[in-house]
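Reopening this ticket.

The earlier resolution said the output was attached, but the attachment link was broken on my side. Pasting everything inline this time so it's all in one place.
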Amino acid sequence: MKRVVITGLGPVTPIGIGKEDYWNSLIAGKSGVDYITRFDTENFPTKIAAEIKNFTPENYIDKKVLRRMDRFTQYALVATHLALKDGEVTLEKEDKERIGVVLGSGIGGMETLELEHSKLLENGPRRVSPVFIPMMISNMASGQISIYYGLKGPSMVITTACASGSNAIGEAFRMIQTGGCDLIITGGSEAAITPVALAGFSSMKALSTRNHEPSKASRPFDKDRDGFVMGEGAGVIILEELEHALKRGARIYAELVGYGASSDAYHMTAPDPSADGAKRAMELALKDGDVDYHQVDYINAHGTSTYYNDKLETLAIKSLFKEQAYKLHISSTKSMTGHLLGAAGGIEVIATALAVNEGKIPPTINYEIPDEECDLNYVPNEYVEREIRYAMSNSLGFGGHNATLLLKKWR
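Inline output:
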């Protein structure tokens, strides 16, 4: 099996666009949550989200191209531009038939769907855009990246709800391991801060209603948590076969050595109360990488700030790591970015790779009241410095999807 490394990082997030801004905000414990500005929330119980501010895609993409893209595709394409630039990839020198695009998106073009549906109701079917369907469908993020850069390897989108980004990276990892590609652009993208999506999650009672303190609303593992906060953006990385990366003199952030995927087979939205699925995903990633659990130093947790997720992810970690669980550093960067749904795995593996590379662990902000059911070390409120040998990034999604990525420090 080929070895696989991470050589480029492209985050487009509510706390920063580009590697430096994103990482500096994570280490500073900056919250990206504020009042929603994109539409009127007067009749909504939740009025807050982690929107991306100052997004200017025309700085990266031709305006004519942008007009035919939903916001989630724009995020993905800009994140790809940033990742390729960060990785110093010169595509003209590469065999484009051996470069793939594997992205994750849980929802796809929700904004386009809502806009065109309104046109249908108000003005009739003839007013619906002829590019409505290709703008909305989830696969268009990878399709547009492939078209824009002329990449002729595998191109696809993985949809496993909030595990989409991590599953996409894991499947890309497998393609490179088995020799099918030299390099894959992978990660996740999502732009679901829209009226219908907000209303749907609100009706489920899944969202925080801490409207009076937006920056404190996302509080994973804290006893006073009351739901997740929606976020948006994209996290794209360059995954590359090791020898290919070394040959072109690439900078290596970390080696991806393990991938585990499992299903709860339990419920549409609720996690299995035994936490067996999440445990098995982590266990499979360790087995895949031939790594003993004692070697893991850090976990970037799914950590949504919902009661059951945080409680049961903690249980899964304890069940697998036993006494070692209390020696781990665990943090949820969703405390700062909100929950990017299908893009969460993308931006969180970037955070994990940077933590491994820099020897700094981002904090879980807003951790103020300890919960007896969540009693591990969640790196409260301030980052810590620590040498990291191996790190995990967890993603758990509606439908019982679980995905874990295992990274190793590059030496």
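Reporter confirms the inline version is readable. DSSP finds 13 helices and 15 strands in the chain. The first strand starts at residue 4 and ends at 13.
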